[in-house]
Amino acid sequence: MRKKENPEKAVEYIQAAKRISAFTGAGISVESGIPPFRGENGIWNKYDPRIFDIDFFVQNPKKTWEYIVEIFVSPFKNVKPNDAHFALAKLEENGLLSTVITQNIDNLHQEAGSETVYEFHGNSKNLLCLQCSEISYFTDVDFSYLPPKCKYCKGILKPNFIFFGEGIPQDALQNSMAETIASDVFLVIGTTGEVMPACMIPRLAKENGAKIIEVNTAKTSFTNPVSDVFLRGKATEVMNDLMKRLGL
Ligand code: NAD
User: Fold this and answer.
1) pTM for the full model?
2) How far is the CA of 216 from the centre of ligand 1 (A)?
């Protein structure tokens, strides 16, 4: 076993911690059936990311919506949280985890029972009207004509997750920063660490003295410079093993 790949060290850090947070990315939801953006079967191997540029969307809402339906609406419909989402919810329930900061937009942490979830990139379950700013829920919207329209003012609806060129939601940003600074252990699960500014979160935690426990099937930009422990493997398997070692 390589020096960093030591689950006992992770248990030691978790048991000694005063405040633990988790930072998650697309990899935690792969075993729920949602493909990641990068790497094997990544969405960007198949689609051009420019369709999710906010300026492109405003000019071509119908075109982007056809992709949204194909990438997000149908595949996200019947997905369920997996053991890694449930493990984080259980850690929170047992007072061992204060927050999940997620880059994901799939709502699976909340569905698993996590209560404090900061969504860095918004959520795909609701839609924002670009004209009157009212929120609609996916389940209440008619997708037979694209782009879907707001039932109040007939403005164009946009999924309430952020597109390239948009800012991070202010409350999620501020809460995540505060939590990052307050935590002395950080679990970083299933993220390449390539998306700015989200990827600064584990780095900021490290600079503030937190121990970083990374879970991923492959090494990332965090593994050498940032992670104190690197647990290589599928999120569900690694988290199930960790929970067993913690007696949970
Ligand atoms: P990414 O797609 O760039 O990378 C996925 C990471 O997960 C990789 O490091 C990969 O090695 C790892 N991984 C793959 N399968 C895994 C598994 N079973 N267990 C553990 N790790 C695994 O993901 P990212 O860094 O989160 O950046 C992509 C951006 O795209 C995010 O900001 C997010 O908003 C968005 N996104 C979200 C979803 C979702 O909501 N589920 C899906 C795709 C993309």
Assistant:
1) 0.94
2) 10
